[in-house]
Protein backbone atom coordinates (compact mmCIF):
# COMPACT_ATOMS: atom_id res chain seq x y z
CA UNK A 1 0.00 0.00 0.00
CA UNK A 2 1.43 3.39 -1.01
CA UNK A 3 1.50 6.44 1.18
CA UNK A 4 -0.05 9.31 -0.79
CA UNK A 5 1.38 12.06 1.42
CA UNK A 6 4.79 13.50 0.86
CA UNK A 7 7.00 13.88 3.95
CA UNK A 8 6.78 17.69 3.79
CA UNK A 9 3.04 17.94 3.19
CA UNK A 10 1.17 20.53 5.24
CA UNK A 11 -2.32 20.51 6.63
CA UNK A 12 -4.75 22.79 4.74
CA UNK A 13 -4.95 25.28 7.64
CA UNK A 14 -1.20 25.71 8.10
CA UNK A 15 0.51 28.86 6.84
CA UNK A 16 3.89 29.23 5.26
CA UNK A 17 6.39 31.20 7.39
CA UNK A 18 6.19 34.10 4.91
CA UNK A 19 2.44 34.46 5.58
CA UNK A 20 2.80 34.36 9.36
CA UNK A 21 3.25 37.39 11.61
CA UNK A 22 6.63 37.40 13.38
CA UNK A 23 7.93 39.20 16.44
CA UNK A 24 11.50 39.36 17.65
CA UNK A 25 12.02 39.03 21.39
CA UNK A 26 15.31 40.10 22.93
CA UNK A 27 16.31 38.68 26.30
CA UNK A 28 19.40 40.24 27.84
CA UNK A 29 21.31 40.68 31.07
CA UNK A 30 20.95 44.19 32.47
CA UNK A 31 24.43 44.49 33.96
CA UNK A 32 23.46 47.48 36.12
CA UNK A 33 20.68 45.66 37.99
CA UNK A 34 21.86 42.08 37.46
CA UNK A 35 18.38 41.17 36.16
CA UNK A 36 17.32 39.46 32.95
CA UNK A 37 15.18 41.85 30.90
CA UNK A 38 12.97 41.37 27.82
CA UNK A 39 12.03 43.62 24.90
CA UNK A 40 9.82 42.94 21.85
CA UNK A 41 10.38 44.27 18.33
CA UNK A 42 8.47 44.14 15.07
CA UNK A 43 11.52 43.75 12.84
CA UNK A 44 14.70 41.73 13.03
CA UNK A 45 17.18 44.53 12.36
CA UNK A 46 15.85 46.67 15.24
CA UNK A 47 16.00 43.67 17.58
CA UNK A 48 19.57 42.87 16.54
CA UNK A 49 20.69 46.50 16.95
CA UNK A 50 19.17 46.58 20.44
CA UNK A 51 20.79 43.25 21.36
CA UNK A 52 24.20 44.45 20.13
CA UNK A 53 23.86 47.66 22.15
CA UNK A 54 23.50 45.58 25.34
CA UNK A 55 26.92 43.95 24.87
CA UNK A 56 28.99 46.68 26.51
CA UNK A 57 30.61 44.67 29.29
CA UNK A 58 32.43 41.33 29.38
CA UNK A 59 29.67 39.55 31.36
CA UNK A 60 26.83 40.95 29.21
CA UNK A 61 24.76 38.76 26.88
CA UNK A 62 21.70 39.09 24.67
CA UNK A 63 19.60 36.61 22.67
CA UNK A 64 17.16 37.37 19.82
CA UNK A 65 14.29 34.86 19.50
CA UNK A 66 11.96 34.73 16.50
CA UNK A 67 8.36 34.25 17.67
CA UNK A 68 5.53 33.23 15.33
CA UNK A 69 2.32 34.85 16.51
CA UNK A 70 -0.80 32.67 16.58
CA UNK A 71 -3.50 33.68 14.08
CA UNK A 72 -5.92 34.66 16.89
CA UNK A 73 -3.35 37.06 18.35
CA UNK A 74 -2.74 38.57 14.90
CA UNK A 75 -6.46 39.27 14.52
CA UNK A 76 -6.62 40.81 18.01
CA UNK A 77 -3.67 43.10 17.28
CA UNK A 78 -5.23 44.13 13.97
CA UNK A 79 -8.47 45.01 15.79
CA UNK A 80 -6.51 47.11 18.31
CA UNK A 81 -4.81 48.99 15.48
CA UNK A 82 -8.19 49.79 13.92
CA UNK A 83 -9.55 51.13 17.22
CA UNK A 84 -6.51 53.18 18.14
TrEMBL record:
<protein>
    <submittedName>
        <fullName>Uncharacterized protein</fullName>
    </submittedName>
</protein>
Amino acid sequence: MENSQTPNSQTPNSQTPEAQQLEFHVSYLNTLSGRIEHEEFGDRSAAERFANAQLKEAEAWAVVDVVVLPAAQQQHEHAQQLVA
